[in-house]
Amino acid sequence: MEIKMSSKLIVALDFSSADQALEFVNPLSPPDCKLKVGFELFVSAGPDLVRTLTGKGFDIFLDLKFHDIPNTVASVCKEAAKLDVWMMNVHASGGLEMMYAAHAALSELACPPKLIAVSVLTSMNDEQLQETGVDRLAKDQVFHLAGLAKQAGLDGMVCSAQEAKALRQQFGDEFLLVTPGIRPVGAERGDQSRVMTPRDAIQEGVDYIVVGRPITQSSTPLEIIRQINADLVHQPV
Ligand SMILES: O=C(O)c1cc(=O)[nH]c(=O)n1[C@@H]1O[C@H](COP(=O)(O)O)[C@@H](O)[C@H]1O
């Protein structure tokens, strides 16, 4: 009997309507991947679509990158948790107090979702980060923000796979590393700067990879998902 393990792949459902998203999801089953619902789909399809996807048994990463005053973020995290999502995120640059408040709000729940912090967006390179007034290399800023997220009690970070090894060494095996900016060999980089292939990312010790356009804009998305899953499990010893 084949035992299907849960995949380390999170597919970013960056579609503009529920119909498009469901057409994409229909041939999939939960062991194939987890699903990420971000701004575009949430603004167009709302909480109902999230309920539909969780009803199909998928683990949902609600990627709304909350970033506001602590009280507002704590309240919205509690509301979002009512959707029974597996994971949600806040921006670490919202600060320690904001992350404490978000964590405290979710800790009151019987079955809280995982809460992770976005660090430096994977689209940004060192120059773009410095333009915002942060006088550090991206990898150093990610490290700094990860320290704050850990201190606030969060479950992990969204970072690039390029930072994963150092974060793993410093923050341990329990600290989840979720990495967008993943590009299979030969895929278009698009607006992503700090990129890595799925296989290399897993070797660097990440827990989950996030892949959007290389799958969703492909004419053969199922094949790409299967190929990535094969890459993720067949690691050299
Ligand atoms: O929080 C995220 O998911 C996220 C953080 C980040 O630093 N970079 C990043 O690309 N993402 C998201 O990950 C997905 C990447 O999509 P692709 O670039 O199409 O693979 C998008 O939905 C982004 O919104």
Comma- or semicolon-separated keywords:
237 residues, alpha/beta, TIM Barrel, 8 strands, binds orotidine-5'-monophosphate
Chain-wise SSE layout:
Blueprint: E1 9-12, H1 18-25, E2 34-37, H2 39-55, E3 60-66, H3 70-81, E4 87-91, H4 96-107, E5 114-118, H5 126-131, H6 138-151, E6 156-158, H7 164-171, E7 176-179, H8 198-203, E8 208-211, H9 213-216, H10 221-233
Parallel strand pairs: 1-2, 1-8, 2-3, 3-4, 4-5, 5-6, 6-7, 7-8
Helix pairs in contact: 3-4
The structure holds orotidine-5'-monophosphate (OMP).
Keywords: Decarboxylase, Lyase, Pyrimidine biosynthesis
EC number: 4.1.1.23
Enzyme class: lyase
Q: Any overview of this molecule?
A:
- The longest helix is centred in the first third of the chain and has 17 residues, at 39-55.
- This protein has one domain (9-232): TIM Barrel.
- An 8-stranded parallel beta barrel has the order 1-2-3-4-5-6-7-8, surrounded by 6 helices.
- The protein is built from 10 helices and 8 strands.
- The model has no long low-confidence stretch (mean pLDDT 96).
- The chain has helices at residues 18-25, 39-55, 70-81, 96-107, 126-131, 138-151, 164-171, 198-203, 213-216, 221-233; strands spanning 9-12, 34-37, 60-66, 87-91, 114-118, 156-158, 176-179, 208-211.
- Helix content is 42%, strand content 15%.
- The chain is of the alpha/beta class and 237 residues long.
- The site of orotidine-5'-monophosphate (OMP) has 18 residues, from strand 3 and strand 8.
- The site of orotidine-5'-monophosphate has 18 residues, from strand 3 and strand 8.
